[in-house]
Automatic annotation (TrEMBL):
<dbReference type="Pfam" id="PF00005">
    <property type="entry name" value="ABC_tran"/>
</dbReference>
<dbReference type="InterPro" id="IPR051120">
    <property type="entry name" value="ABC_AA/LPS_Transport"/>
</dbReference>
<dbReference type="GO" id="GO:0042941">
    <property type="term" value="P:D-alanine transmembrane transport"/>
</dbReference>
<dbReference type="GO" id="GO:0005524">
    <property type="term" value="F:ATP binding"/>
</dbReference>
<dbReference type="Pfam" id="PF12399">
    <property type="entry name" value="BCA_ABC_TP_C"/>
</dbReference>
<dbReference type="InterPro" id="IPR003593">
    <property type="entry name" value="AAA+_ATPase"/>
</dbReference>
<dbReference type="GO" id="GO:0005304">
    <property type="term" value="F:L-valine transmembrane transporter activity"/>
</dbReference>
<dbReference type="InterPro" id="IPR032823">
    <property type="entry name" value="BCA_ABC_TP_C"/>
</dbReference>
<dbReference type="InterPro" id="IPR027417">
    <property type="entry name" value="P-loop_NTPase"/>
</dbReference>
<dbReference type="GO" id="GO:0015192">
    <property type="term" value="F:L-phenylalanine transmembrane transporter activity"/>
</dbReference>
<keyword id="KW-0813">Transport</keyword>
<dbReference type="InterPro" id="IPR003439">
    <property type="entry name" value="ABC_transporter-like_ATP-bd"/>
</dbReference>
<dbReference type="GO" id="GO:0015808">
    <property type="term" value="P:L-alanine transport"/>
</dbReference>
<protein>
    <submittedName>
        <fullName>Branched-chain amino acid transport system ATP-binding protein</fullName>
    </submittedName>
</protein>
<dbReference type="GO" id="GO:0005886">
    <property type="term" value="C:plasma membrane"/>
</dbReference>
<dbReference type="GO" id="GO:0015188">
    <property type="term" value="F:L-isoleucine transmembrane transporter activity"/>
</dbReference>
<dbReference type="GO" id="GO:1903805">
    <property type="term" value="P:L-valine import across plasma membrane"/>
</dbReference>
């Protein structure tokens, strides 16, 4: 069985005359931490939105654990790309919705924190737990599956304890310091029991001390939760320290990929991005 958890093939996302992502192909293997970097407006978050089913791509395919979850090809192009015995494995349009993709094992955080600001820390995690509920709407409405609800509450509390947030369980999420809100958003993503975690600028707005702590935190999460991580990030110290491999986008196109050492010495990447300040 392949170790490939995520792969994109020739993904293009066009909005009118603007091509936000242009023929992007990449792959992320089990247990890796892979970074997707590039200047603001390079198409990184758009790529995340395609992977998670928010956007239907103009063209291309997304695979999760070797199975297509997103695809869109102009009439006849699929036949040209996948002819013969492989043709029966594909259809020209596949679009799983974000909730289905989450249930398959893909979770994400956002550049702008999206917590339920008026709910407690505990309730934010518990709501995410409901993504994996097994009871149907009828039984849930009649509260017939109280055991499942009790298990979700127990697991939510255990998750907060593991992440060092248990003492804040009754606090309103919007009252937390910024770094703790980031950690809570990651906790909420983990509550869906993902195997692939997408982090969209997790260090945004953090000071150097918080960024250092986050670096260690992501490493621990990967190991403790058996995760594969795809991360968008502008803080190059974090990216270079934690990433196994890096992909670089510029104006929607992939301009380089490789190890941190490869990327640091790539003149095209230096010209397009690494000369830009981290906070830009």
């Amino acid at each position: 069985m392949s170790d490939r958890v995520l792969s994109l093939e020739n993904v293009t996302m066009q909005f009118g005359g603007v091509v936000a992502v242009n023929n992007l192909s990449l792959e992320v293997n089990k247990g890796e931490i892979v970074a997707l970097i590039g200047p603001n407006g390079a198409g990184k978050t758009t790529a995340f939105n395609v992977i998670t089913g928010v956007y239907a791509p103009t063209n291309g395919m997304v695979y999760f654990k070797e199975k297509p979850i997103i695809s869109n090809f102009p009439q006849g192009k699929m036949k040209k790309l996948y002819s013969g015995e492989n043709m029966g494995k594909y259809s020209e349009v596949i679009r799983k919705t974000p909730d289905v993709i989450t249930k398959l094992g893909v979770a994400r955080t956002f550049q702008n924190i999206r917590l339920f600001k008026n709910l407690t820390v505990f309730d934010n995690v518990l709501i995410a737990k409901h993504m994996n509920i097994q009871s149907n709407v009828f039984s849930a409405t009649l509260r017939l599956n109280r055991k499942e609800e009790a298990n979700m509450r127990k697991e939510s509390m255990e998750l907060l304890e593991i992440l060092g947030l248990a003492h804040l369980k009754d606090e309103i999420s919007s009252s937390l310091p910024y770094g703790q809100q980031r950690k809570l958003e990651i906790a909420r993503a983990l509550a869906t029991k993902p195997s692939l975690l997408l982090l969209d600028e997790p260090a945004a707005g953090m000071n150097p001390h918080e960024t250092h702590d986050l670096t260690q935190f992501i490493r621990l999460l990967k190991d403790d939760f058996n995760l594969t991580v795809l991360m968008i990030e502008h803080h190059m110290n974090l990216v270079m320290e934690i990433s196994d491999r890096i992909y670089v986008l510029d104006f929607g196109k992939l301009i380089a990929s490789g190890t941190p050492a490869d990327i640091q010495s790539n003149q095209r990447v230096i010209d397009a991005y690494l000369g830009v300040a981290d906070d830009e």
